Amino acid sequence: MQVDKTKKKQALAAMKKLQLKEKFVLSVLKDALKSHTWDTLEADNFNLLADLAFQRQADQEKHTTIDSQEGQQLYEDDGIDALYDHHVDARFEHKPMRSMETSEKRSFEAGTSSFCKRPKQDGIEIGSKTNTVADVFYGPASEPLRHAKFDSSEKLELDFSNDAAPPCGNLPSFNVNNSRASCSAIKYDLHLQNRSDFQVKSETDHEQDHNLGGTANTLNSHKPDFKLASSGRKLSEGDKLQEEALAGWNLLRDKQKCFSQHKRGKPENLSPFIENNSKPQLCATSLDPCLAKENGSTSVEENPAALNLIMENYSSSSDTSESDTAGLSNTDKLAVSKECSTVAENKLRISKDKEFSHERELKQINLKIEYQGERSCQVFDRREASCATESKNLSLPSVDPITDGVKGGLVADGTAQQDTLSICELDCLNGVRVKQDHLWVPKKKGISFDLDVESTSRHNPLDISRGEENIPIPLAGDVVGNLSPEFYYTSKCVIYQNAPVTFSLAKVPEDECCSSCFGDCLNSPIACACSKETGGEYAYNADGCLHDWFLRKAIKEKIRWDVYPRDYYCPSMSSCPIERLKYVRKIESCKGHLLRKFVKECWRKCGCDKRCGNRVVQRGISRRLEVFWAPHGKGWGVRTLENLPAGAFVCEYVGEILTHEELEGRKMSKSGYLKQPFPLLLDADLCSDHVLKNGEPLCLDSTHYGNIARFINHRCYDANVLDIPILIESTDRHYYHVAYFTNRVVEVREELTWDYEIDFDDKHSLKAFQCRCGSRFCRGRDYKLSEIS
Ligand SMILES: C[S@@+](CC[C@H](N)C(=O)[O-])C[C@H]1O[C@@H](n2cnc3c(N)ncnc32)[C@H](O)[C@@H]1O
């Protein structure tokens, strides 16, 4: 067929935008015209032509790769599955961290390995379903990054001198008095070797430092040593496997074309966070950390700064260092100090060193108390309290899970407190009820919180949740700064004004609850009605984690969505609320929303116990988490203080519940209002047959009222938490809870990240931010590594 020159030109121009070479396109075009009309080919901005071209490209690559032994398996159907399975399986293993010094770091530094989502623009969707390259990509893609802790100070050798500014970048009213400079005053070297006791030397004490051979980890050096302890070690079998997967993936990635950035037209999903609100509820593990899994202990090497502070305290406090440490060997002291360092850092710590005799344990506790007393910041745990009972005549407060509080706490002198104390008060104050208008006031300056918090901060760094959560949510001790005073922590979603959210027993149909159940539904031989949502099986296992099968499904769904968003139908199409949120005159038709799998938890109308295994999210946070100053200019972030298995419940996304109009109003009210954090649209059911009230999804905005989830940073594609919609009080999907679960094993102190699903290239979207997630698949990486610092 003779092709009109202009048309050919247009076709070539359209394909050029997709980075398809002219010669290649011409050849595709030639073949295409044998079986298609020109009209069909040019429809929808040459959509079909693009499809054919990418199909051809994929076929060619496949052919080439099959020749190559290295990649052969990856392209065979079962190879892909295997790879995918490997990827998913890997999420469930717990392997040691891998250094970023390998190809991962290189690719990040080079800034060249960005991998684009399946590109689309102006209705063009590139590639086809049969092109499984994307699937392959998603398989091993995340796999190598499983261990890529891109969190705290461990990875990249970056100069954070810019980062060293107080954490005020995103925080309007940050207390700028507290620059890092104040921390340099506590830059100590700790020397443990061959010393009869610990010595802490100030940085300025150079002469003596030379005599001592210990580590010199500084709290705020300009250029911290980010090398991983594990770097340079021999590769284990697991590592090799991982390396192989990485090599396979690299091969594919190199082959896969990365399209021009503006060609990626993933619909802006303004549901960056998925969290939920849970009723704070005491659960055994959160209340009794001794029962909880003990793995949050950090080593001196990991946190020498905190230890230094403790040691400094000991050495400067005559009545503690001498008397309380007397009789303890250096090893014991080290262990004690380790414990205390964790206290100092996390503000919540339990002693659990099996080596300790009871007597020693008491000493340890005494030391702790001494330390804590010095600063009026204390830890509380059952074991400590029970030990303290012997030494200080305190006794454990009784716990009333129904009132979500602790009754009968004791003050320091053992006097009973009759009224209900929040857990936080106990946690933070070690049973001593001291209120200073909810302010935590450090008595002594020169330690981690050497701030002006006394006068300016509403946030208690020992527990920013103000006692709203089961366990305290501390602000990392090595941070100098505080949270925005405009932020109010709440553990439950609150209606801003007009959102039609009401819960009533009458609204829960009898066949959607389990009124005749008793105890723990998970133990029941027959799954109850609440499991109907998940196909007659409970989504949670006995450990309160999502079952592997559920997690895998959710991960796969998410991956599919990432790759083929257009396969998802949106009934609203051109009036899709998500599209309307964009700053555009002409609203594009929606590209679809992921129809998510819900989990239905038992609730009040159910006959089971509050501790029923099918009530996880509603019992609230049970893992030890911390808000910290995240690296690479991301602002605050969240990290875990304990190892988390795959499928572990992290937290809900809590915020103000807004109607769509209210959200629009906010968007318009201040320019850039939505820059941080992002609103989360409750669109999990938008594409179903259910008719939404007012046709609009509700939205959660955690800018001013929210929980720890609003500090979780974004990571492109390979984030470690996944959002799951949860039904609790209602089966109406207009409002539901959004909960974050780990999608793989997450190691202690690893930053928790979530893929906000932002299309950084969509010019019409709310301008997000320059992504600094560090993922090799970063979608918004148009900067060089050097720009990060
Ligand atoms: C929901 S908040 C997360 C908490 C935030 N870091 C803070 O300090 O409050 C989202 C904001 O965090 C920052 N952020 C999150 N992820 C980021 C990333 N990958 N790269 C750069 N900035 C990020 C951006 O400023 C974004 O607007």
Describe the structure.
With 789 residues, the protein is an alpha+beta fold. Among the domains are: 63 residues; 267 residues, Beta-clip-like. It is 31% helix and 8% strand. The strands form 7 sheets. It has a 4-stranded mixed sheet. A 4-stranded mixed sheet has the order 9-18-19-12, with no helix packed on it. Strand 3 and strand 4 form a beta hairpin. Helix 1 packs across helix 3, helix 3 packs across helix 4 and helix 5 runs parallel beside helix 7. The longest helix has 30 residues. It is globular, with a radius of gyration of 28 Å. The termini are far apart. The relative contact order is 0.13. The C terminus is likely disordered. The structure holds S-adenosylmethionine (SAM). The site of S-adenosylmethionine has 16 residues, from strand 11 and strand 17.
Spatial arrangement of strands, main beta sheet: 8-13-15-14
Superfamily (CATH H level) name of the domain at 494-760:
SET domain
From the N-terminal CA to the C-terminal CA, the straight-line distance is: 57 Å
Q: Looking at the structure, what is the overall shape? A: globular
Secondary-structure class: alpha+beta
Arithmetic mean pLDDT: 57
Q: Predict the CATH topology of the domain at 494-760.
A: Beta-clip-like
Number of helices: 22
Major sheet: size, sense and barrel closure?
4 strands, mixed
Instruction: Please report which band the strand proportion falls in: under 5%, 5-15%, 15-25%, 25-35%, 35-45% or over 45%.
Output: 5-15%
The rounded Rg comes to 28 Å
Number of strands: 20
> Which CATH C-level class of the domain at 494-760 is it?
Mainly Beta
**Distinct small molecules:** S-adenosylmethionine
Helicity, in percent? 25-40%
Low-pLDDT stretches: 64-238, 244-455, 783-789
Query: What CATH architecture of the domain at 494-760 would you give?
Result: Beta Complex
